[in-house]
Amino acid sequence: MMISFAIVEDQPELRRNLVEWLNRAPGLNCVGAYPTGEEALKQLPTLYPDVVLMDINLPGMGGIQCVSRLKQLLPETDVIMLTTYDNAEMIFDSIRAGATGYLLKNQPREELLQALQQVHAGGSPMSLKIARKVFNHFQTPAKHGSEIEQLTNRELEILRLLTKGYLYKEIAETLKVALATIQTHVAAIYKKLHVHSRTEAAMKFAGKE
Amino acid sequence: MMISFAIVEDQPELRRNLVEWLNRAPGLNCVGAYPTGEEALKQLPTLYPDVVLMDINLPGMGGIQCVSRLKQLLPETDVIMLTTYDNAEMIFDSIRAGATGYLLKNQPREELLQALQQVHAGGSPMSLKIARKVFNHFQTPAKHGSEIEQLTNRELEILRLLTKGYLYKEIAETLKVALATIQTHVAAIYKKLHVHSRTEAAMKFAGKE
DNA sequence: TGAGGTCTCACATGTTTATTTGATGTCACC
DNA sequence: GGTGACATCAAATAAACATGTGAGACCTCA
Questions:
Q1: Contact predicate A71/A79, CB 8 Å
Q2: Which chain D positions have some atom within 7 A of a protein CB?
Q3: For chains A and B, what is the number of CB pairs under 8 angstroms?
């Protein structure tokens, strides 16, 4: 079974080397190589590659945005991100944008080859550290729960209304207490949650309870 | 560098086979093998294993709960879950409970060996399908949202910062534009989302994107 | 070339929020 | 009968926010 792939990478040397090296592998067929996201978006939709290797640091539109658009045009195509850094934000932005795999550039080429095959076999290849970060991302939200538990019932009640965007005034009316009381409670909530604004508090509360 | 590990698995045959097979590998040293989570929790805290292989389907407390407690007692120990099924709920419950890796049982033993080494090297080994599911988990909430899609990229960028609780001033500095520009964008965002405060916007945005 | 969308900035006004200090009354618990 | 946690209220200030109007620069697309 032949896997067709394309590469988006702005460094000419690296791009050519990768194409050449990967093409040598049996079962792989390169159908395109582009220096920018814009160029790739123009050409790829008619080529229907199985997999695209996408550099994140592209001049112009950037790799993440490119993935986002590419997936709209070619939902069936899998995209593997390539990057030098293991920045957490970039990882999750990429995944959200539709990336299927995420690899660091400083890895042996054999792994890149494996990754291509893995993607095509229904997997999501990622580098060691990336995998760990992804796992950790699920674990952190459990920690915030503890702070919420510090709140009294009254404070929880108020936080619920804060989260819905009620004005202090409206909360006061709803609970039939003075505005000043709400202010005091809010201050207490912020202190316990270690935040300094309604939105931060709401975000900590979101999903919980 | 010697990696010490333990196994929690209720099927006696499988348990013995795994211990025997893994012990044969250079660099691996089995310090314990238990049929139940209860037994493991009693013995393991004094043994400080580097890695624990944990069956999910355990009689009694179950593997996921066992991980949860084990990680409280031994935060430094990595746990790899072993299971026959790739049920999504179990995967995420396990990860939240503190698992560092997640493997399907029907895999070649070489992969199990690799997984042990990967965990110790800072990775999070998972089977092909598991990895894909984990990735998909991030993407699904991104699907055809709502009013959020009306936002321009710039507005999204600002909304992201708003959601994190940044002050207008800080957003302006971050994006290197004037405070007035942020105000204008925020007004545009509120209009498109039909809200009148930062928190309401943040709540509509939460999870989405 | 002109219309429409986006991003940028300025000026202005009133409202809301965040934070502090301090005080009162209630209830439970030792 | 005192201690502590909780809910309530007051007063005051600085900061931040929500909202409006207007306007120049740029790009794209018809």
A1: yes
A2: 5-12, 16-23
A3: 102
Give whole-number Cα distances, A181 to A25, A154, A177, A178, A188, in Å. Answer: 71, 11, 7, 5, 11
Q: Is the CB of A195 under 7 A from strand D?
A: no
> What is the structure's pLDDT at A207?
66
A89-98, A133-142, B2-11, B152-161: least confidently modelled range: A133-142
What band does B144 get if pLDDT is binned at 50, 70 and 90?
Answer: very low
Residues of B with CB under 8 A from a CB of A: 92, 95-96, 98-101, 118, 121-129, 131-132, 134-135, 138-139, 142, 153, 162-165, 195-200, 202-203, 206, 209
A205: tokens are 């509360």
Taking a C-beta distance cutoff of 8 angstroms, is the pair A194, B193 a contact? Answer: no
Does this model's pTM top 0.70? no
Can you read off the two tokens belonging to residue A102? 């995420």
What crossing angle do the helices spanning B88-97 and B128-139 adopt, rounded to 10°? 90
Name, in order, each residue with C-beta under 8 angstroms of B28's C-beta and a sequence gap of 6 or more. B2, B3, B5, B22, B113, B116
Identify the burial level of B209 via C-beta atoms within 10 angstroms of its C-beta, where 0-12 means exposed, 13-18 middle and 19 or more buried. middle
Q: What are the structure tokens assigned to A41, written together?
A: 């978006």
Q: Which residues of chain A fall below pLDDT 70? A: 140-146, 207-209
What's the confidence (pLDDT) of residue B142?
46
User: What's the pLDDT score for residue A163?
Assistant: 93
Query: Which domains, from first to last, does chain A contain?
Result: 3-138 (3.40.50.2300), 145-206 (1.10.10.10)
Residue with tokens 């080397």: A17
